[in-house]
Design goal:
five-stranded antiparallel beta sheet, Peptide Deformylase, globular, binds zinc ion
């Protein structure tokens, strides 16, 4: 294993501008996945994601250019979200799990546009078009092959996290005119339908 992983005592979330967020992360071997270091890294990333709190965290976000991400969308995060928004976003709880060395493909041509944020772009948000449904092949934390077919918000989380493993951030995919501080999102745009926001910001129709 490359130097660095085992020597990191305290991990923290890195912010945009750190070159590690723009690297192509390297895959992990089955032996590495089984190692104490990677198992410990998974636990640390799980804790950091919960503390943030966030629904996903990729290894490059803690400064490690490895193809590993953790995901969990807890039901408790949904209690402050209006039911209509949960429905519109097709957002359901997702249990904690780990994805390693993923391959992702859209399941059809359908897309969805919603505002999203990133723990490495703290305090900002933008409207990002994504595939509505995806199929992901990956290794789990025991090195076993798994396949997920996901739609709605879960599909968006998977696309966002797997982008991190390729050095891609949501700002590469966003409608640039919608980029906003979270303060201003809450002040001007919160609760307004996407089509109203698109019209107000004079987005080009697709
Ligand atoms: Zn992110």
């Amino acid at each position: 294993m490359r130097a660095g992983i085992e020597s990191i005592v305290e991990l923290e979330i890195v912010q945009v501008g750190n070159p590690v967020l723009r690297e192509q992360a390297r895959p992990l071997s089955p032996a590495e996945i089984a190692s104490k270091e990677i198992q410990k890294l998974i636990q640390s990333m799980r804790n950091i994601m919960h503390d943030a709190p966030g629904v996903g965290l990729a290894a490059p976000q803690v400064g490690l250019s490895l193809q590993l991400a953790v995901i969990e969308d807890r039901e408790e995060y949904h209690k402050d979200v209006p039911a209509e928004q949960l429905r519109e976003r097709d957002r359901l709880p997702v249990p904690f799990h780990v994805i390693i060395n993923p391959r992702i493909a859209a399941m059809n041509a359908e897309t969805a546009e919603f505002f999203e944020g990133c723990l490495s772009l703290q305090g900002f948000s933008a409207l990002v078009p994504r595939a509505r449904a995806v199929r992901v092949e990956f290794l789990n934390e025991r090195g076993k092959k798994e396949v997920i077919e996901a739609s709605g918000w879960y599909a968006r989380i998977l696309q966002h996290e797997i982008d991190h493993l390729r050095g891609t951030l949501y700002i590469d995919r966003m409608h640039a005119r919608t980029f906003t501080s979270l303060d201003n999102w809450n002040r001007f745009w919160k609760g307004r339908p996407i089509r109203t926001i698109s019209a107000a910001l004079r987005l080009e129709p697709e």
